[in-house]
Structures are given as structure tokens and as C-alpha cells.
Write a structure and sequence with these properties.
The protein is mostly helical. The chain contains seven helices and no strands. The chain has one domain (2-62, 75-159).
Length: 171
């Protein structure tokens, strides 16, 4: 169902589809891989090391997008904005990796859906783009699928007689 929502947002096969949108799908796959890897590492491996590996992966994949825009030297203001963004990204990586390693996935994952809200708001504020009805419908399917997964997992736990997890703490 969530994939159907993503397809509604991307609309492949229509004039609204832009192949560059596939980068967003690749990004989601990379985030899922990072999260799964984060949980699989030994506790002896520091979260900062895991975050650094993810950042190196992003950096190494950057040349794949090189042909999508004309490159030029950033202005001092743009360079400052890039440095600030890099600082926030570092904090975000460390926070997400730590949350996925220590927290219960069912508790941490719903916070990802706030990305849709921020993406819509940034699209409007920066580019003046308003989501159309197909985008809203797709977003509703994605969020609905996520909420269904969370509720279903909670009910399965209760059915097995397991106590609900303490929010944010993995057993």
C-alpha cells in the first residue's frame, strides 16, 4: 500500500513524471539500508562511526547526480548555507543512527512521516509548488500504511502476551 502511495506521488508513465524523481526512491532505499545496518552493528561500534560510513556513502554516490545540473563555484553566502546544512546533517545522522540502534523501530519509524510534511512545506516556501490531489492521496496512502504497520505490530505484541515496549528503548 505504501508503494502504491509512492507511485501515486511519482506518477510514472505520465507527463507529470520526471526521471530525477527516481533519486528519491534510491534515497529511501539507502536510508532503509543504513537503518538496517545500524541495528546490525555490534554495540562496540560507535554511532559516530556508523554515521560516518553513511556520510561517506552519500559522498561517493554524489557524482552519479553530476549531470543533473550545471555546476558552478558557490558564492560565499551559498557556501555558508552549505556549511550550516552540513552541520545539521551531521547532527541528524548521529541522532537517527543512535535512535535506530537503541530505540524500538516501531517507536522511531513514525517520526519519518514528518518528512512528508516538511517536504511539502519546503516545496511551497522555496519553490512555490503546491502539492496536487494525486500527491496528497499518495502521501495519505504512505502515512496510512505506516500507521497500519504500527497498530498491527502493537496488536500482535498484545496477542502474544508481551508487554508494550517502553517508548524508545529496545529490549
Amino acid at each position: 500500500v505504501g508503494l502504491a502511495g509512492v507511485l501515486l506521488i511519482l506518477r510514472p508513465g505520465t507527463t507529470a513524471f520526471e526521471p530525477v524523481a527516481l533519486l528519491a526512491v534510491a534515497s529511501v532505499l539507502a536510508v532503509v539500508a543504513r537503518d538496517l545496518a545500524s541495528r546490525g552493528f555490534s554495540r562496540a561500534v560507535r554511532s559516530s562511526s556508523v554515521a560516518l560510513c553513511a556520510a561517506v556513502g552519500v559522498t561517493l554516490s554524489a557524482p552519479l547526480t553530476g549531470g543533473l545540473a550545471d555546476w558552478r563555484l558557490p558564492t560565499p553566502a551559498e557556501l555558508t548555507a552549505l556549511c550550516v546544512a552540513a552541520g545539521f546533517l551531521t547532527v541528524a545522522y548521529l541522532t537517527v543512527v543512535s535512535a535506530m540502534r537503541v530505540g524500538e523501530v516501531g517507536f522511531v519509524s513514525p517520526f519519518r512521516y514528518t518528512l512528508l510534511v516538511f517536504a511539502f512545506l519546503l516545496d511551497l516556501a522555496v519553490f512555490g509548488i503546491r502539492p496536487d490531489s494525486w500527491t496528497w492521496a499518495g502521501a495519505a496512502l504512505v502515512v496510512g500504511a505506516g500507521l497500519y504497520s504500527i497498530i498491527r505490530e502493537s496488536r500482535l505484541r498484545q496477542g502474544r502476551g508481551q508487554a508494550a515496549p517502553v517508548p524508545g528503548v529496545r529490549p
